[in-house]
Specification:
Elements lengths: L5 E7 L3 H12 L4 E4 L32 H16 L3 E4 L2 E8 L4 E7 L8 H5 L2 E9 L3 E3 L12 E3 H11 L6 E6 L3 H11 L3 E7 L10 H6 L1 H17 L3 E3 L1 E7 L6 E6 L12 E4 L2 E5 L2 E3 L2 H5 L4 E3 L5 E3 L12 E3 L9 H18 L6 H24 L15 E3 L4 E2 H10 L5 H8 L12 H12 L5 H8 L9 H8 L4
Parallel strand pairs: 1-2, 1-6, 2-3, 6-19, 8-15, 9-10, 9-15, 10-11
Antiparallel strand pairs: 4-5, 5-6, 7-16, 12-13, 13-14, 17-18, 20-21
The chain binds flavin-adenine dinucleotide.
Length: 490
């Protein structure tokens, strides 16, 4: 597609939210550009093996997936819209910056792999111009540091699952899966079905916390059924589920060999004398997800802190952001799962179509609004049942690494707060450098905010979290791309 094309709608992200938005918008007659960093659609939830080489995989691409038929339907509708000339799919491209004037949004992209940097066709797709934009950039794993967490063999639970889903590769043979929330069940069940011995699944919270929200669970029968499926897998593979239990430390030279588990109280403080050691070569840690907000924040979209303490972008009841012409869908508006993301994506597209002057479908929009409100109630219940323990920072030893990129430990953060009077995460960041390295705080940002808050006694506010999620360059970039921008060459 020529550089000068202006689309009526651009969608960033081809996960459940963005894919639903792009397809629905094209079917409403809008011209759409769908830009995604992934080489194929599906996002995190429907991550699957390379479609060009399916015969190289032992199991079918649908293996381990929920709602796969819905994904297949979206994929078919996407192909139809592409064939019909209403939609351009730009896979393997990361949007690193968005400029906005009165009428247009200009998306600047860079190839995910760098492989096609000199390709003329790819060069013509580097800039995407659109009248409206759906941001469906999803989320990434939320991590908390603990003693030994940088030992090879300790991985984010989402990363372990991504290897399974995309490559059908298991990251170890004996696994401990730990953290909090129902995602742990999905990861453990996937590992066990793939032949890994799961020696423990540790949730820092008690199952009784779910009792406070039974109505919410009943309102989402699909989630209940998923839970029943995991329970059956746990029984079949004899996987022990240990509640109010955490990984207190990880041991091993060159690779994880042992893990110390410990019981915790309701605030997450380790109960003395409860430590026990198990052998494992893989530790999968998951503490929920962090919405990916660089682009939303870069555009000036309003944010707030959600029930799970994540910074999220604020969407109104029709998925409009606070920035005219920019809509939000999926995990960027609050962690709620794939079904919720699909509904938000579809509603964002219908709203964008109405705003672009297309016919309204009030019944469809109100059905989606109701669906989203129900999903949101469930998500609030889930977050309340699976909070990050209030006192998790007490697990840290003084030399526990908090920021891996810049090798900043807990002691350095604490010293910066107390001796140098740095009283918010931004101050600590610029003084001691946590969050200043390659990942720009994506991994340590949340933990840093918690640690500073524990030391100052002041809860983290949006003004504390936003600077940690603010990245003027949303993705790593070649100097050549920056230079081209400076030269006015897009
Ligand atoms: C590793 C991981 C595994 C998960 N597994 C599960 C699971 O098994 N079950 C479950 O219920 N939930 C899972 N989740 C939660 C999951 O994110 C959601 O339920 C669902 O995928 C959200 O859909 P989404 O469209 O909002 O985001 P995503 O699926 O995350 O899709 C976002 C898309 O945006 C693209 N993107 C982001 N930034 C840019 C950019 N700057 N330029 C171009 N493209 C960009 C990404 O490449 C991605 O394809 C997982 C989350 C993670 C992080």
């Amino acid at each position: 597609m020529a550089e000068a094309s202006v689309y009526e709608l651009a969608v960033i992200g081809a996960g459940p939210a963005g894919l639903s938005a792009a397809v629905a918008a094209a079917e409403r007659g809008l011209t759409v550009a769908l830009v995604d960093a992934g080489a194929q659609t599906g996002g995190q939830y429907w991550r699957h093996p390379d479609e060009r080489h399916l015969d190289a995989f032992a199991r079918p691409e649908s293996s381990g997936h929920h709602h796969w038929s819905h994904y297949r339907d979206l994929r078919t509708r996407l192909a139809r819209a592409v064939e019909g000339g209403r939609l351009v799919h730009l896979p393997g491209r990361q949007v690193w910056r968005i400029d906005r004037d009165d009428t247009l949004l200009t998306l600047r992209t860079t190839p995910t792999s760098g492989a096609d940097a000199t390709d003329a066709a790819a060069a013509s797709e580097r800039v995407v111009r659109a009248e409206r934009l759906v941001l469906a950039t999803g989320a990434y794993d939320r991590q908390l540091p603990l003693p030994g967490w940088t030992t090879p063999g300790v991985m984010a639970a989402g990363g372990v699952q991504a290897l399974l889903k995309a490559n059908q590769v298991t990251a170890g043979r004996r696994a401990v899966v730990a953290g909090t929330g129902p995602f742990l069940l999905s990861v453990a069940a996937g590992l066990a079905d793939a032949g890994v011995e799961v020696v423990a699944v540790c949730d820092a919270n008690a199952l009784s916390r779910w009792a406070a929200t039974p109505l919410r669970a009943v309102q989402e029968p699909g989630k209940l059924l998923e839970g029943v499926g995991y329970a059956a897998t746990f029984v079949r593979h004899r996987i022990p589920l240990r509640t109010r239990t955490v990984v207190a430390s990880v041991h091993g030279t060159g690779r994880v060999s042992h893990v110390t588990l410990a019981k915790v109280d309701a605030r997450g403080r380790v109960r003395p004398g409860t430590g026990r050691t198990v052998e494992a070569d893989l530790v999968a840690l998951g503490w929920g997800f962090t919405p990916q907000l660089e682009l939303a924040i870069g555009l000036g979209a309003q944010t707030r802190v959600d029930v799970d303490s994540s910074l999220i972008a604020v969407a109104d009841a029709d998925q409009r952001s606070s920035v005219p012409g920019v809509y939000l869908a999926g995990e960027a508006t609050g962690i709620g799962g794939a079904v919720q993301s699909c509904a938000e994506g579809e509603l964002a597209a219908l709203t964008a179509a109405v705003d672009a002057g297309r016919a309204d479908d009030p019944r469809a929009r109100s059905r989606l609004r109701r669906r989203i409100a129900r999903g949101r109630r469930f998500a609030v219940g889930m977050h309340r049942a699976s909070p990050v323990p209030a006192d998790w920072t007490t697990w840290l030893a003084s030399d526990t690494t908090v920021c891996r990129c810049e090798e900043v430990d807990a002691d350095a953060v604490r010293t910066t707060v107390h001796d140098l009077a740095a009283d918010d995460p931004r101050d600590v960041r610029v003084t001691a450098r946590p969050g200043m390295g390659l990942c720009q705080g994506r991994v340590c940002g949340f933990a840093l905010a918690c640690l500073v808050s524990a030391e100052t006694g002041r809860p983290a506010e949006p003004t504390d979290l936003e600077p940690l999620a603010k990245r003027p360059l949303a993705t790593p970039l070649t100097v050549a791309a920056l230079a081209a921008l400076a030269d006015g060459k897009d």
